[in-house]
Design a protein that fits this description.
8 strands, 11 helices, four-stranded antiparallel β-sheet, alpha+beta, globular
């Protein structure tokens, strides 16, 4: 908190300067101007609660915000017969409320659930499914073509797709729950929740140093190889140019991936590292170096053979193995108790942002499903695809570019 007791604000440029090179970090060139507040490890809990991610910007803030401790995803369906004017009214209200919530301020009709918690780096990101565009009689971009089935998929249609997808992330679970409740309450009569899921990471600045790559339930650092906003071609690979209403937006693939942890835990650590292609302790590639050392896919072991094996996950997922395909990913672990067979119902809520899922997620996943050794230890159970429109200004609302194009 500042000396005056108000939430501490930081710019997206400040986030870029303060997060790790591997994180799905902050905006490159999206918003300039105000001085950046540095974020360092070891903040007190009240300091973390006071951090604020501005809602308005060229891109929706949740795309490039730093990894958060809590992520909730909810899909909504429009009420039967809902008119475009009702959708526009809902999106205007959500925009108003999102500005307040991300600033740590109460919204009209607030239940005070998060009173005193601060914004806690809350982000609210909204996308549209192909079904919504069809309901609006709007052209469906080719990038929203259905994701094809993959070997080993066990998808539950009751927990997939939807007209509107909403991603909420923050460093406080109460803040996220409060925000979702607020959006759900104002949607009544226009849209209802189709499904929702929640996940978690360690809390940067409290339990681990801020900027630390999250560790998943398999014990691996997860997200080390993410592209960085200052990488050549980052913007054109992550953000869309067409159609016009999507310019500055992106396409989001959501997958619930259950990890077969009981089988994974039977493997010795060395074998686990070979399957991933990275050391478990440091995240360094088996070809040598530190966590952020580039992969050497041709590197050899001293006794011969590839250091990163032919079926290693990092080899199969690398852009070099997928015609340059690049995705910006976020992930949240989930643990929903035990399944009827006693195995953990646990894994990863996986989110991938890209300018075209056909050349991003789908291309990569087709290879992983067939050649990645890790695929024997995971099951994809939920799939959803959304067009995430560009961000807002103080004079516009979520989805306005789409509605204006109708």
């Amino acid at each position: 908190m500042s000396a005056a007791g108000t939430p501490r604000r930081f710019t997206r440029r400040g986030v870029l300067a303060a997060t790790s090179a591997a994180g799905a970090a902050a905006v490159a060139g999206a918003v300039g101007g105000t001085a950046a507040a540095s974020i360092r490890g070891g903040e007190r809990a009240e300091d973390v609660g006071g951090l604020r991610v501005p809602f308005d910007g060229v891109h929706q803030a949740g795309i490039l915000a730093p990894p958060a401790a809590h992520g909730w995803f909810a899909a909504f369906d429009l009420a039967p017969g809902a008119a475009p004017a009702e959708l526009a009214s809902l999106l205007r209200t959500w925009t108003r409320d999102a500005r307040l919530l991300t600033a740590g301020e109460p919204v009209p009709g607030d239940d005070a659930m998060a009173l005193g918690h601060g914004p806690s780096s809350l982000t609210i990101t909204v996308g549209f499914g192909a079904s919504l565009l069809r309901a609006l009689k709007a052209p469906v971009p080719a990038e929203l073509a259905p994701i094809p089935p993959f070997p080993r998929d066990e998808l539950d249609p009751r927990r997939g797709d939807g007209d509107i997808g909403v991603l909420l992330t923050a460093d406080d679970a109460i803040v996220v729950a409060h925000a979702l409740r607020a959006l759900t309450r104002t949607a009544r009569g226009t849209a209802t929740v189709r499904w929702q899921m929640s996940g978690f990471n360690s809390t940067g600045g409290v339990t681990v140093a801020r900027g630390t790559t999250p560790r998943n339930l398999m014990g691996q650092l997860d997200g080390t190889g993410n592209p960085k906003p200052d990488d050549p071609g980052f913007g054109t690979r992550v953000f869309a140019a067409d159609p016009a209403w999507m310019r500055g937006g992106t396409y989001l693939v959501f997958r619930r991936i259950r990890m077969l942890l009981d089988a994974w835990d039977t493997l010795p650590r060395e074998r686990q590292e070979q399957i991933i292609g990275r050391r478990k302790d440091s995240g360094a590639p088996l070809s040598g170096g530190t966590e952020f050392t580039p992969l050497d896919l041709g590197g050899q072991n001293p006794g011969g053979g590839l250091a990163i094996g032919p079926g290693a996950h990092v080899r199969q997922a690398a852009p070099a193995s997928n015609a340059g395909a690049t995705i910006l990913r976020k992930g949240f672990s989930y643990f929903d108790g035990l399944r009827p067979d006693g195995a953990p119902d646990a894994g990863l809520l996986f989110l991938a942002f890209q300018n075209d899922p056909r050349d991003g997620f789908t291309r990569i996943q087709q290879r992983l499903a067939l050649a990645d050794e890790l695929s024997r230890f995971v099951v994809h159970e939920t799939s959803a695809l959304f067009a995430v429109p560009p961000g807002t200004s103080s004079r516009s609302h979520l989805g306005q570019s789409l509605l204006d194009a109708l």
